[in-house]
Amino acid sequence: MIMKSSMTKTEPKKIAFSGIQPSGIIHIGNYLGSIQLWLEVQGHYDAIFSVVNLHAITVPQNPKDLKANTLNAAKTFLASGIDPEKATIFVQSDVPEHAQLYWTLGTITKLSELYLMTQFKDKSQGTETVLSGLLTYPVLMAADILLYNTTTVPVGDDQRQHVELAREIARRFNDMFGKTFVVPQALIHKTGSRIMGLDNPGKKMSKSAANKNNYIALTDTAADVASKIKKAVTDSEGSIYYDIDKKPGVSNLLTILSLITGSSIKDLEKTYREQTTYAGLKNDTTTALVDFISAFQKRYRNISDAEVKHHLDLGAQKARAMASQKLEEVYERMGLSL
Ligand code: ATP
Ligand code: LTN
Q1: DSSP labels for 75-92?
Q2: Structural domain includes residue 279
């Protein structure tokens, strides 16, 4: 939770940066693990949120779909409550400094560091051809973050390692060329930083999962939600309490219900203490999700494409003004500008 009281008037505002790939659907894992944190930081931080389309092309994309998904991701930000008066929102490729800084940072990043990234290992596993963009992706992510003097990076737990590498790259650059970058910190939820797949609570909920029952998309219908939660894998014990190792499926449902409703997990455990089946927990989770998603969808339908484009254009201008200054500084430090 971000405490207003911890910010004094004289304290400079902290800067938060985060991004989501426009690679298709946005699921409640993305929302609860990341966008919910964005809503907490906006207003307290100078917040910058990007639709990171250059990241999305590290796996093959259909150009027409990519365009539509990019606009839809930005619309999702707005429908979720991201306020363009408080936060800058923009599309990554509209600010060419991201790709430019990426190149310079790549010249001080070790291949051995990139091969260590678990996301690279997961995504490259089993594929015949591994494209270089998939390996160097965390350098682009470091560029995204470091361009804006970012202090804080609100993300899900799966991005912790990438933020750690961005910190290392910042420190290395500062040591080699003089203090240029702020060393950022990840901001990760205590609960909800890793929403698990409904069909397999041993692995994180993922939009790239083969089984559609793995995730609840923000575009799902009430019937989809009911059917997916009904099929969610639990266990045969018949009692409801939070224990991530012994009861990953039930703990995942409790986490989702807690984050959507704002009730603590302790209170939910009390509510379900007497219950010997999971039907009640599943019904309540379905109702909470359906209420949340239908309100979201209503807001989403009322936002026009023109409105989104307007905010993205303004956002790109603001982001470019900041990013170009930082890139100039980097070029100066490295002896690239005459
Ligand atoms: P996926 O692995 O689901 O295909 P991704 O992690 O590559 O997608 P993004 O859309 O870029 O997808 O993720 C946006 C944000 O959502 C990131 O901050 C990420 O950490 C967070 N996130 C993704 N999946 C989960 C999850 N299952 N639980 C919590 N946060 C998540
Ligand atoms: N790699 C992230 C998306 C991302 C990001 C960023 C997050 C790209 N650049 C900068 C935070 C800050 C992902 O796949 N979830």
Answers
A1: HHHHHHT--TTTEEEEEG
A2: yes
Q: Are 76 and 207 in contact (CB under 8 A)?
A: no
Domain containing residue 233: 215-301
The answer to whether residues 48 and 131 belong to one domain is yes
**What is the CB < 6 Å shell around ligand 2?**
17-19, 21, 52, 55, 141, 144-145, 153, 155, 159, 162
Q: 198 vs 14, 23, 153, 195, 284, CA distance in Å?
A: 36, 20, 27, 9, 16
If asked whether residues 117 and 160 sit together in one domain, one would say yes
Q: What angle do CA 123, 135, 59 make, to 5 degrees?
A: 50
Residue 23 has a pLDDT of 86
Q: Is residue 204 part of a domain?
A: no
How far is 24 from 238, CA to CA, in rounded Å? 36
Q: Tokens 């590498």 label which residue? A: 165
Mean predicted confidence (pLDDT) in 105-123? 96
- CA nearest ligand 2 atom 11, residue: 18
User: For 257-293, how does the pLDDT look when each residue is reduced to its tens digit (9 = 90+)?
Assistant: 999 999 999 999 999 999 999 999 999 999 999 999 9
- pTM for this prediction: 0.94
Same domain, 242 and 294: yes
Look at residue 10 in the predicted model and tell me its pLDDT.
58
Average pLDDT of the chain? Answer: 95
Would you say residue 166 lies in a domain? Answer: yes
Residue range 95-115: mean pLDDT, rounded? 98
Cβ atoms of 22 and 59 closer than 8 Å: no
The answer to whether the CB of 47 falls within 8 A of the CB of 88 is yes
pLDDT score recorded for residue 5:
43
Backbone CA torsion sign across 23, 27, 33, 39: positive
How far, in Å, from the CA of 24 to the mean position of ligand 2?
A: 15
